[in-house]
Design brief:
mainly beta; Porin; 1 helix
Length: about 200
């Protein structure tokens, strides 16, 4: 955890403050790989493939489709875990300040979980999500995203978890980008760190 935060901090200190390309309001695909570690018993490890599609729904909102599939080794057993979800993310452009340096966002989402490893929630089925965060734009192509998610099952509203996301994105040019991402789930005590390639076609 300390190593991850140090890497993110170094990325920020090495960049001047200029207006930059945002991950909000853009058309792009994401292809990524993430490693999972932790779990309530501390013996969980896994590898995940992450696919995503970001498409503007309007001038102030995006649709985000996510698909995650992973192989997980937990308690000496191999299991799979996958989720398919759709998020609606609103950008609060009226509250952008410092010439667009800070961009807050919030949204809602729904997904379907098939989680034999039980690393996301304790049961499979349809899940809901509330999300909020802020994107901080640094250089012309470098940004930092800080977000929080509150997720739960429709079938059991007592089954919930709270996660935080940190991501540093570098757009190499207007088409290609890469992102270093970190996620921590508090109830499941799970850490995921990954690298994602971004392809923007508009």
């Amino acid at each position: 955890m300390k190593c991850i935060l140090s890497l993110l901090l170094c990325s920020l200190l090495l960049t001047p403050f200029l207006y930059s390309k945002s991950r909000l309001g853009e058309y792009y695909y994401g292809f990524g790989y993430a490693m999972a570690d932790g779990g309530k018993s501390g013996t969980l490890e896994g590898d995940f493939l992450n696919l995503s599609l970001n498409s503007p729904a309007s001038d102030s909102a995006d649709f985000v489709i996510n698909f995650n599939y992973g192989n997980v080794d937990a308690d000496l057993k191999d299991n799979t875990s996958w989720a398919l979800g759709l998020d609606y993310v609103m950008q609060y452009n009226d509250y952008i300040y410092q010439n667009g340096l800070f961009r807050p966002f919030a949204g809602i989402g729904a997904s379907y979980l098939d989680d034999g490893a039980k690393i996301r929630l304790s049961e499979d089925g349809m899940a809901w999500k509330l999300l909020a965060g802020i994107e901080i734009l640094f250089t012309e192509y470098v940004s930092l995203s800080l977000g929080a998610n509150f997720i739960g099952l429709f079938a059991d509203f007592g089954e919930t978890d709270y996660t935080v996301d940190i991501g540093v994105t570098w757009w190499i040019n207007d088409v290609h980008g890469i992102a270093l991402e970190y996620n921590h789930a508090f109830d499941q005590d799970l850490d995921l760190i990954g690298l994602r390639y971004l392809y923007s076609w508009k």
